[in-house]
Amino acid sequence: MARKLKQLQPQCPFVFLTAVRQDAERYQGYETGADDYITKPFSYRELDYKLQVILRRTSNAIPLTEAWLEVEDMALNTRSRKLRIGEHTFKLTQRESDLLQIFMQRYGDFVTRNEILISFWGRDDQYTARSMDVYIVRLRKLLAHSSRLGIENLYGSGHRLIRIKE
User: Could you list the residue range(s) of the whole structural domain that residue 34 is in?
Assistant: First the structure.
């Protein structure tokens, strides 16, 4: 899991808090990219100091550039959650932004309901499924401002962001 986190967010600080005290385990923790490896029992004051030092050191390393995803006439700033469609700009909620980001990254490919439900809500039940439907309706309303894009639903396959045939 630590390796996966470092692959996804290499600049993100990572600290192991564990009861495992063997040297081999500690070395393995550092090899996966951990900034520190703290074993129990530990002093909360010392933990606080160590975290402050790590955050001070890494806060300058985190890039402050805007992260834009673009598809056709639509651009999404993943940091500020601003969506630009043609001349229109919208501020999205975190969930709307995250959901649209998945559709944009996998433009043209189906994303299954189960993938969305598990990754966003951690479960697949009727309540979360209805919540997801509400967010998709909201995104479709926003995409109505685009002459080129829409969200297609194919029963049994999921949803996908597609170019609307003109």
Answer: 2-59
